[in-house]
Here is the input.
Amino acid sequence: MSKSVADKLGKGITPQQFIDGMTKNKEAFIGWYDKFEWTDESDRELFESMNNRDDLRVLILMADWCGDVVRNIPVVFQALSISGIPTEVLIMEEHLDTMDQFMTMGGRSVPVVIIADTGGAVLGTWGPRPKYIQEPMVAFKQENSDREAADYQEKLAATRQEIGRRYGEGTEYQSLIIKELRALLESF
Here is the structure.
């Protein structure tokens, strides 16, 4: 059965309301937002061309305490701001029913960008990280199913360190997000 977010359309807050209401990581979030630059003109043109479509809606499940939200959502906001696609934020803790429909490997991971049609039928999702950056976590989860194992936390810490290394210090990772969102949008 296909997923629907019809009951959530119109229930979220705007991207600006999310930023204004941030109580954690606001400075870092705005920093990444301000550093965003289009590295491929054809990507920018594709997102701008979305203004010609009125059949899409975006809901983003997220929370200001999450490091992946701080790194990734400024890029998503920038891309969607020129697309004209109506975008709403759902704070994870206020929408656990929706979060539980969009689990990542059995866990509540944010952000989750949900693209739906105007009736709320889910067309696709993105998140919580670009695929390349998510690879170490996928491998960790596949290899470490026993959360009670003596070395579980140590291995998890090493995995998070590798994720941080893959993000890097600069903005290079941002083009991965743009390419993945572009591919998703071009698929429908």
The chain is about 45% helix and 10% strand. The helical segments are 15-21, 26-35, 41-49, 67-81, 96-99, 131-143, 152-167, 174-186.
